[in-house]
Write a structure and sequence with these properties.
single chain, alpha+beta, 3-stranded antiparallel sheet, about 50% helix, elongated
């Protein structure tokens, strides 16, 4: 296999992913809230409620504060004249090599949380699927999009 990619995504990704995960992480508390609302007028089993809430709290902390840092540490990418190399994953690592000659188009995307941190994602589309390099600062994302587009044009002109 080729050397491991070396380029990291922006450090602000941790903050953006923490906010996103915290918003979604509130869903972990729904079983506790639903249980409490269904049993409020009856006898509440406080042991069960405490267990549900404790599990929700542990999952909330893990997904909101631990996983974003691990995810950032594991995300790497490189772009060369022949391919785009992406490495990601915490428990199961995934390495994707996208040949430049297979790229159909490349986009940048930015949601409200990424916009707050000045981040964008680069989306690379092939005939089979779409790949994403997340959480790059806006200038890097624009430059990367333009670099990939230039490499694709160069390869397609040579054919």
């Amino acid at each position: 296999m080729n050397q491991i990619p070396t380029t990291r995504i922006h450090e602000s990704a941790v903050n953006a992913w923490t906010i996103t995960a915290s918003l979604y992480g509130l869903l972990w508390f729904f079983p506790s809230v639903i249980y409490l609302s269904l049993t409020w007028n009856h006898t509440v089993d406080w042991v069960l409620f405490t267990i549900l809430t404790t599990i929700a709290l542990v999952l909330f902390i893990a997904t909101s504060f631990i996983l974003p840092k691990l995810r950032w540490k594991r995300w790497r990418y490189d772009v060369s004249e022949k391919e785009i190399d992406m490495l990601r994953g915490i428990i199961i690592t995934t390495r994707t090599l996208v040949p430049i000659n297979r790229v159909q188009h490349v986009d940048t995307r930015q949601g409200p949380i990424y916009r707050k941190f000045g981040l964008s994602s680069v989306t690379i589309s092939t005939a089979a699927t779409t790949h994403e390099i997340p959480a790059l600062d806006d200038a890097t994302a624009d430059a990367l999009r333009n670099t990939i587009a230039t490499l694709v044009r160069r390869v397609k002109e040579d054919v």
